[in-house]
Amino acid sequence: MKNNSLKAKIKNKEVTIGSWITLGHTSIAEIMAKAGFDWLVIDMEHSAITLHEAQELIKVIELLGIVPLVRIGENSQYKIKRVMDAGAHGVIVPMVNCNEDAIKAVSAVKYPPIGQRGVGLARAQRYGLEFERYRDWVNEESIVIVQIEHIEAVNNLKEILSINGVDGFIVGPYDLSASMGKPGEFDYPDVVNALTKVKEVSKEMDAVSGFHVVQPKTEEVMAKIKEGYRFIGFSLDTLFLGKTCLSKMGEIRHYLQDVTGKGNA
User: Fold this and answer.
1) pTM > 0.85
2) Domains plus CATH for the chain?
3) Which of 25, 46, 150, 212 is catalytic?
4) 46 flagged as catalytic
């Protein structure tokens, strides 16, 4: 297991940019891993990706020198253990709303005496050939990012970030706004106030703050960097594909309308 440079970047509060994979095909992982991201998240919460597919995606991402993370479906010791054994360098844990949730997540990633993860001999441990090496690596270099996506989490953010082993957090803006009854209404005053509180607490705790910019808009990424966010998720595979197709076909249709007077050839 090679040294995970992402851990050092997080500790140094450098800006890192990643993205989400929701399509369980290795070609998607290969294309995105060659695009220049620092990390890629295999999404097992809002996708049909299986554990087997996740392991294959992890392999491709890792072999291309990018850090593979997995967003698990729930804060489950069983699910976290399995994706870590498959070779994930860390996890993004949804709905961490209190310090007990954060403790549970860290404990599932780390071996004793830090955590309570059970020992298995799978891909991460080179199928039993390098357990001791992996044991030392995982307790020092694995990554735990908690998702702040509920108003309860915002209210408990200071306690969550005080847990040893939490490397940073990432805001899930859609779920956060939904928890206040305003899904996707990011300009709603209560949502704005919640995000302001997140930034204030993060600054007070000197934490690594993250944000998932869902739409593939580079200007929004730049704005988040200016706001102080350092761990930034930039869109996801399906939106990159869908938005590009719509945009380019829109340009062609406009051209055809200009030259033929019709929207179709």
Assistant:
1) yes
2) 5-240 (3.20.20.60)
3) 46
4) yes
